[in-house]
């Protein structure tokens, strides 16, 4: 069910420090229109997830309910990595006007509880940066007041909420599309993790963010950090 709470959001933004972000009019509609909307899985170079010393980050190192971030498949595309503390089964995401049906692969790791989503809000492409993050996961027990619940990913720019246990589907508008899934691979022998593809709604991220000049492909490995170690300020809503 999608619930629009724009009025609540406007009131919140006006009264609570102005995190409301004005609508932007990027050329992404034009860029997106040129994409092949039937392509729901894009394979990129398979890369190892590592710590800051370039040592492999094991799935057992991922703390439950913590927000982690890495960049994939480009150096300017942040990804949220989460251990949801429960088994996430594969799920079929039904066809929409813009995206063909596809299968979310479910969780990986020993408990099948680890998932990853591109941390770029599908509403207006707000993403974490080193100064602040408006998008994060609210684990069980940490309620997002703008959504009225927990165990969700919420973007405080305009209040969109997504379900990380259910393929990143939209729980609350104004976003209309699920978060893009990052397909992970788990080596059960070594416990190492790899990223290897994007699945689902797949806008031309590289072009959208090319003005930041960091849109190079990630190769060989990508570093995992806690979101709180990457962004100086994490906005909650
Ligand atoms: S950019 Fe608008 S809700 Fe995220």
List keywords for this structure.
single chain; 10% helix; binds FE2/S2 (inorganic) cluster; disordered N terminus; 4 helices; 29% strand; 237 residues; mainly beta
Explain what the structure shows:
The chain is 10% helix and 29% strand. It has 237 residues and is mostly beta strands. The strands form five sheets. It has a four-stranded mixed beta sheet with strand order 12-13-1-14, with no helix packed on it. Strand 4 (91-93) and strand 5 (102-104) form a beta hairpin. The radius of gyration is 17 Å and the shape is globular. Residues 121, 123-124, 126, 155, 157-160, 174-175 line the site of FE2/S2 (inorganic) cluster (FES).
In short:
With 237 residues, the protein is mostly beta strands. The chain has helices at 6-15, 28-33, 205-208, 227-230, and strands at 41-50, 68-71, 78-83, 91-93, 102-104, 114-118, 132-133, 135-138, 152-155, 160-163, 169-172, 181-186, 193-199, 221-223, 225-226, 233-234. The model is unreliable at 1-35 (pLDDT under 50).
